[in-house]
Design goal:
This protein is of the alpha+beta class. It has helices at 3-8, 56-72, and strands at residues 16-19, 23-27, 35-41, 79-82, 98-102. The chain is built from 2 helices and 5 strands. A 5-stranded antiparallel sheet has the order 1-2-3-5-4, with helices on one face. The relative contact order is 0.23.
Length: 111
């Protein structure tokens, strides 16, 4: 069971900012911006590259959740959404998740 599955099942505490039947969103414990929220599907998908056509509706839902959380967090001035994929992409938990970053200006390139 992944770290995120344990959070979703309530085994590890987290500061949830959003929940529905398909996804959860909670604050990152090592924030990289004033607002750093992780949006995670309840159904585990290892990574974006492991997703398939049947995951399209869930992937779209995750983006809608990001937009809703950004509104709730007052990020009307802009924000960044990041999906790390695989070891070279910086993915450290093998469960797809979207990073919502905002609350300050974000430079480019990101890393």
């Amino acid at each position: 069971m992944t770290l995120f599955e344990r959070i979703i099942h309530g085994e590890i505490p987290a500061s949830f900012v959003y929940e529905d039947d398909l996804a959860v969103a909670f604050r990152d414990i090592h924030p990289q911006a004033p607002t750093h929220v992780l949006v995670v599907p309840r159904r585990p998908i290892t990574s974006l590259s492991a997703s398939r056509g049947e995951d399209a509706a869930l992937l779209g839902h995750l983006l809608v959740v990001v937009a809703e959380v950004a509104r709730r967090e007052g990020l009307g001035g802009g924000y960044r959404v990041v999906i790390n994929d695989g070891a070279h992409g910086g993915q450290t938990v093998p469960h797809l998740h979207l990073h919502l970053l905002g609350g300050r200006g974000l430079g480019w390139p990101p890393g």
